[in-house]
Amino acid sequence: MLELAEIEDALEEGAVRTMIVKELLESLAESRKIMLDLNKDLKTRERWTQLHNSTSQILNTILRDVQMRDWEKRLKEIEEYRHVKPRI
């Protein structure tokens, strides 16, 4: 069973992750707008494309980490359930 401190830490971590994901999505939208702006010179659009790609990789890493943590949590719950002996 999780202690209160662990629950608070998990909630705080979740809030930070949510904020980071939101900021990364906003950054992706802005970089996409600039890199597709035909009024910008080619070199500027190329730099923003590189930034967009880097931001995408970071976002994918964060989302993959969240997914892995969720799977680990589910696996732990299954393992704990299997160790509980049924009462008859």
Q: What is the gyration radius calculated from CA atoms?
A: 21 Å
Question: What general outline do the C-alpha atoms trace?
Answer: elongated
| Main sheet record | none
Strand portion: under 5%
Structural class: mainly alpha
N-end to C-end Cα span = 24 Å
**Overall mean pLDDT:** 87
Give, in order, the helices and strands: HH
Question: Can you characterise this structure?
Answer:
The longest helix is centred in the C-terminal third of the chain and has 42 residues, at 42-83. The relative contact order is 0.08. This protein starts with a helix and ends in a 5-residue tail after the last helix. With 88 residues, it is mainly alpha-helical. 84% of the residues lie in helices and 0% in strands. Helix 1 packs antiparallel against helix 2. The protein has one domain (4-83).
Layout of helices and strands, plus pairs?
Elements: H1 4-35, H2 42-83
Can you give keywords for this protein?
88 residues
Explain briefly what this protein structure is.
With 88 residues, this protein is mostly helical. It has helices spanning 4-35, 42-83.
